[in-house]
Automatic annotation (TrEMBL):
Signal peptide: none annotated. The keyword Transmembrane helix applies. The keyword Protease does not apply. The chain crosses the membrane at residues 18-37, 57-85, 105-123, 162-182. GO terms for molecular function: iron ion binding; oxidoreductase activity. One of its GO terms (biological process) is lipid biosynthetic process. GO terms for cellular component: membrane. Residues 110-256 form the Fatty acid hydroxylase domain. This is Fatty acid hydroxylase domain-containing protein. Keywords: Membrane, Transmembrane, Transmembrane helix. It comes from the Bacteria. It comes from uncultured Sulfurovum sp.
Length: 292
């Protein structure tokens, strides 16, 4: 349970706002985007009503997760065990394939990363395109200014869906590897974090929810989502583009990619009047009569 304690997020290498990731992001912004860095820490951004909601939401949502979300989540181990049993029932026990440990580690890490990213893309896209789900996801998109804590401005139902997604994808992939290669499967980690996720987190993931226009070279944005591409996704005009988390290949394959050419963008919801209240953020998606 302590993993869900709000302040622990800043010391957990698996959390977006781990202090190491935040410091690197601030350093990138300070060295290369001095004007935007000053804007990020201006009174207009730091104390905007939208930012104040982010701060309050970050703390209060922890209690909601503990009370409502965690008890409903299915664990990765449960999914893995169930899937292994089903594979054995359907196809019988099979002789384990012998593969060099290093190759197994690399392949499992890559396969899990790619399939997890693909599943995030489609769930994120569904959160936009299914009217019922958009009611919940627009809590995140109602942010009119961005900061690293905006990442956690997510309705509990969306947290539940993404938690189930993680358990299902990780559990199924792990079970398939166990079935063919035996137990003891693990990804390559450093300090307890997947090395690929850690790498992306260190190169500016916290700038995704910021006013720092950090884009990649054009060719690289065909493969990886830059912080600025995600900022475009948060704009009123382009919120139907760039659904990817780490990889841009899904957006490119399915026609939703928008590269990070500098544009005048305004964050928030299109054609909707937003009132930044903590009560509305939690209840409006459920009871339409309550305004955000």
């Amino acid at each position: 349970m302590e993993n869900y304690y709000a302040l622990n997020y800043f010391f957990d290498v698996n959390q977006r706002v781990f202090y190491g990731y935040v410091l690197v992001a601030f350093l990138i912004a300070f060295l290369f985007f001095r004007t935007a860095f000053k804007k990020q820490f201006s009174k207009e951004v730091l104390w905007h009503k939208s930012a104040q909601l982010d701060y309050a939401y970050f703390v209060i949502s922890w209690f909601v997760k503990i009370g409502l979300i965690v008890p409903l989540l299915i664990g990765v181990n449960e999914v893995t065990l169930w899937m292994v049993l089903r594979l054995n029932e359907l196809f019988g026990y099979t002789q384990r394939i012998r593969v060099a440990k290093e190759l197994l580690l690399i392949s499992y890490t890559l396969v899990l990363f790619v399939l997890s990213d693909l599943s995030r893309y489609w769930l994120h896209r569904l959160m936009h395109n299914v009217k019922f789900l958009w009611r919940f996801h627009k809590v995140h998109h109602s942010a009119e200014v961005l900061n690293p804590l905006t990442f956690y401005r997510v309705h509990p139902l969306e947290n539940l869906l993404f938690g189930l997604r993680y358990a299902l994808v990780t559990g199924v992939v792990t079970a398939i590897y166990i079935y063919f290669f035996g137990a003891g499967i693990t990804s390559i980690e450093f300090m307890g974090a997947n090395v690929l996720v850690l790498g992306f987190s260190l190169v500016g993931s916290n700038l995704r929810h910021s006013h720092i226009p950090f884009s990649y070279p054009k060719w690289l944005e065909n493969w990886f989502i830059s912080p600025y591409q995600h900022q475009l996704h948060h704009s009123k005009k382009y919120y139907g583009r760039n659904f990817g988390s780490f990889l841009a290949v899904w957006d490119r394959l399915f026609g939703t990619l928008l590269r990070g050419k500098k544009r005048n963008i305004v964050f928030g919801l299109p054609k909707e009047e937003v009132k930044h209240s903590i009560l509305g953020a939690f209840l409006n998606p459920i009871f339409k009569g309550v305004k955000l």
